[in-house]
Design a protein that fits this description.
4-stranded antiparallel sheet, Immunoglobulin-like, alpha+beta, Epithelial_Barrier/Signaling, about 30% strand, Laminin, 6 helices
């Protein structure tokens, strides 16, 4: 329910979602009650306020359906109609405190003063009352009972206001038609809306006006043509038209706006997906931008950072591809090369060690003899009897370096050496000692033969 306070008129109005309204006002110490019914209430009311059907002859319908004649006296109306609608115990919708009940607020025995039974002292006084009240019966009644002129005049004023409101209730409200009623708006593009109004009261002269918070608009009241070029910057826009027939009939209609900034020319507007930026403006929505590849942001004005998700391997630099190139090539980023000795594994997106010592056609080492792989590199080694000089291997001269254990003569070979003896001596292959031939035993002869065999079988690693 919406509650409207009128401090000037000392009144409060409650408006229900169904269209019903209740206005209670205070004047000169007296409360006034006014009920307002929507058009949907026709033929659906019963009770003290009568039957809402534009037929006054059945307004005094009792709870059992009996209709009191419209020309009944006030006494008859009070007792044979009004009293019958008194709320019964158990039927009240109110909640009462303590021992209070419905009957606590009723006085069935009360008898009011009936206006048609007033006995005027003379016609002069009666005419004076009617003159003061401008012939308003309710004013004359209050003045007779209270002798309070201000109260009576307040009653006359309230009756005049009610008469105006009754006229407004009977007055047909003008209807506004918008073509289109919903517009998909792109910043910078021209929008055109045709506005027309009709009124069932053909004698009414209806004025049509535009109100809103938009700039760059033009409205021709005579043709009903409204044009608007929205700004490129997003804001809440409102386009509303008001029709007034001068007789209290006022209606309004708003164009439902679905706005798109244009996505900075880096995307397309999706008017099927919208957001409401301000709940106070239900007729304004913002369309979603679907950004082209390489762009992001609500209006596609931001270059998408292709490196944001850290797509490159560790220790590798990532470079974002500018949005225009990203959009045309489909490539969002580039990674620098892996460190020396590593290569990129496309499946795991990691830098993995290169096995420079692997055999095959892709040999990447320059070792002369032996290769030993390491993390990110490799080292070269040599066979026994050779010494490394970087990637090359050279023979160790055991004879020059005196690393042999020969007794007399050392003979260097590629990767090795062997011992010999001077003339008149023979080599003991077990002890590498040279023994005089004259002292050779039978066992030594066999050793000499073994040495000869060893020399013949010696392997040259340089070949």
């Amino acid at each position: 329910m919406e509650v409207i306070y009128n401090a000037t008129g000392s009144s409060v109005t409650g408006v229900f979602s169904s269209g019903w309204s209740i206005t209670i006002s205070l004047s000169e110490g007296v409360l006034s009650f006014l009920a307002g019914a929507p058009g949907t209430a026709i033929n659906r009311t019963r009770g003290l306020l009568g039957v809402f059907n534009n037929d006054i002859t059945d307004d005094f319908t009792t709870p059992d359906g009996t209709i009191l004649p419209i020309n009944s006296t006030e006494r008859q109306i009070h007792y044979n109609f009004g009293q019958l609608w008194m709320v019964q115990e158990g039927a009240s919708l109110f909640h009462y405190k303590g021992e209070l009940t419905t009957s606590s607020f009723q006085e069935p025995s009360f008898q009011p003063v009936f206006f048609d039974e007033i006995s005027w002292p003379n016609e002069t006084i009666k005419a004076e009352y009617y003159t003061i009240c401008n012939n308003v019966t309710q004013c004359v009644y209050d003045y007779w009972l209270t002798l309070n002129k201000k109260l009576a005049e307040a009653t006359a004023t309230k009756q005049a206001e009610n008469a105006v409101k009754a006229g407004e209730a009977k007055n047909a409200v003008p209807r506004i038609r918008l073509i289109p009623a919903t517009v998909n708006v792109t910043g910078g593009d021209l929008v055109t809306v045709s506005v027309s109004v009709t009124d069932d009261d053909v004698t009414d002269v209806v004025s049509l006006s535009y109100t809103g918070n938009t700039t760059g608009t033009s409205f021709n009241n005579s043709t009903g043509l409204f044009t608007w070029t929205p700004a490129l910057t997003a804001q809440v826009f409102m386009i509303r038209f008001i029709a007034d027939d001068g007789n209290g009939g006022v209606s309004e209609a708003s164009v439902r706006i679905s706005y798109c900034s244009g996505c900075s020319s880096n995307g397309t507007c999706n008017f099927d997906r919208q957001t409401l930026p301000d709940v106070n403006f239900p007729n304004f929505a913002v369309a979603t931008c679907e950004c082209a590849l390489g762009y992001t942001g609500d209006d596609c004005s931001i270059d998408l950072d292709g490196c944001l998700a850290n797509p490159c391997p560790q220790d590798v630099n990532c470079t974002d591809v500018p949005a225009p190139l990203h959009s045309s090539s489909g490539v969002a980023f580039t990674c620098s090369d892996c460190p020396s000795g590593f290569t990129l594994d496309n499946n795991t997106r990691k830098c993995v060690d290169i096995d420079e010592c692997a055999t095959g056609s892709n040999v990447t080492n320059n070792c002369e003899q032996l290769c030993e792989n390491t993390e990110g590199s490799y080292t070269c080694t040599c066979y026994d009897g050779y010494r490394s000089n970087g990637s090359r291997c050279y023979d160790v001269d055991e004879c020059t370096e005196r690393s042999d254990n020969c007794d007399q003569i050392c003979v260097n070979t590629n990767g090795s050496f062997y011992c010999e003896c001077a003339a008149g001596y023979t080599l003991n292959v077990t002890s590498n000692l040279c023994i005089s031939v004259q002292r050779i035993s039978e066992r030594d002869k066999n050793s000499i033969l073994e040495v000869i065999g060893l020399c013949l079988d010696r392997v040259d690693h340089s070949s």
